[in-house]
Amino acid sequence: MNIIIIGATSGIGRALFEKYAVDGNCIGIVGRRANLLDEQYKQHPDNTFTSTADITKQEEIEQAIHTLCAKLKHIDLAIVCSGTGDLNPSLDYALECPAIDTNVKGWTFVIDTLYHIFEQQGFGHLVAITSIGGLRGEPMAPAYSATKAYQINYMEALRKKAFKSGGHITVTDIRPGLVDTAMAKGDGLFWVMPVNKVANQIISAIRKKKTKHTSPNDGIFSPSSIRIYHSTCIDYCSIIRVR
Questions:
Q1: In b/e form, how buried is each residue of 190-228, taking b as 16+ CB within 10 angstroms?
Q2: For residues 204 and 20, is the Cβ–Cβ distance under 8 A?
């Protein structure tokens, strides 16, 4: 299988890369940090292609995606993991801008670019790592929760579009909760999932072509416990860049 992962140098994106690479898939990875991409290439040089790009820079990220497409010839699966956010209870606009630029503007450009590639191919599976944090507005991190809600709704719109177009494109929305990565920092955390376990759940959801998946697994939480869980995620986490 030919795979592209946007935001592959850390966290969930890196864990997914490592698991897919071991299975012998051909993978194109994109990230801002060239040194980390080089490390990943050296781990799996026979089936890894790299391209350095910032998701907020349209020309740069577009060139990166098309360069990888040319090397891979076609894409079976594209996973968009990039995201950023900050705790901002004081509503400092300067802190909100990076989340909007990355999670809305840059993210939308990448998602649309990949969807158009799948339209041209006539097939493909588009996956976005959104967040359980997008299910409710959160005063501690307004832009983060709002931009993740945007992503969730955008993916739903694309699923409907793909279905109406014949169903040749699969669209999957992955909504992680607290995962043991650099995104989850602070004291008193609970229900924190190991990143490898989450990556395995995500791969399973992708393989089953699920429309949406919450990690921890769907069905674990009641609506009330999801509210508690989401509040805990925001109250105790320092949200940092992972793109």
A1: eebbebeebbebbbebbeeebebbbbbeeeebeeeebee
A2: no
> Closest Cα partner for 50 from 114, 101, 113, 7?
7
Q: Are 31 and 243 in contact (CB under 8 A)?
A: yes
Residue 11, phi-psi category: left (phi > 0), alpha (psi -120 to 50), beta (remainder): left
In this structure, what token pair is assigned to residue 12? 């969930």
Amino acid at 207: R
Place of tokens 């990166």: 64
Q: Decide if pLDDT at 107 tops 90.
A: yes
Which DSSP category does 104 fall into? I
DSSP 177: -
Mean pLDDT, rounded, for 181-185: 44
How confident is the model at residue 197, as a pLDDT?
Answer: 86
Counts for the chain of helices (H) and strands (E), in that order? 8, 7
Beta strands in 37-119 (DSSP E): 48-52, 77-80
What is the assigned CATH class of domain 2-236?
Answer: alpha beta
14 by Cβ neighbours in 10 Å (0-12 / 13-18 / 19+) ranks as buried
Query: To the nearest whole percent, how much of the chain has pLDDT over 90?
Result: 72
